[in-house]
Amino acid sequence: MVYFSGKVVYFLSIMKIIHKITFILLIIGGLNWLMVGGADLFYGQQFDIVQWLFGAWPLVVSLIYVLVGLSAVYQACTHPKICTVCSK
C-alpha cells in the first residue's frame, strides 16, 4: 500500500481541477469556432458567441480568448501525461 503525504495529494487534486477547467475551456472554444465557421459558411455572417455574450466588456472577451488559447497549449503539452485523470 502506498501512502502519500498531504502536499502530494493536494498537488494532485489541484492538477485534476486545472485539467478539468482547461478541458471545459477547450470545449467552449471549440463550440465557439464551430458556430463562427458554421454561421459564416451557411449564412454568410459570423456569429461569435463569446462576443455576443460579453461584447460590452472587450477586456473580458480578450481574457476569455487568452484563457481558451492557454488551455489548448496546456492540454497539448500535458494531456499525454495525465490522461488517466479523465478516466477517474
Describe the structure.
The protein is 83% helix and 0% strand. Helix 1 (6-43) crosses helix 3. With 88 residues, it is mostly helical. The chain contains four helices and no strands.
Briefly characterize the structure:
The protein is an all-alpha fold and 88 residues long.
Mean pLDDT, all residues: 77
**How many β-strand runs?**
0
Question: What's the tally of helices?
Answer: 4
Q: Helicity level, as a percent range?
A: over 70%
Straight-line N-to-C gap? 19 Å
Shape assignment: elongated
Reading the helices and strands in chain order gives: HHHH
Largest sheet: none
Q: By helix and strand content, what is the structural category?
A: mainly alpha
How much of the sequence lies in strands comes to under 5%
Radius of gyration: 17 Å
Instruction: Detail the poorly predicted runs.
Output: none
Features:
mainly alpha; 0% strand; 88 residues
Describe the secondary structure blueprint for this structure.
Elements: H1 6-43, H2 49-54, H3 58-82, H4 84-87
Helix pairs in contact: 1-3
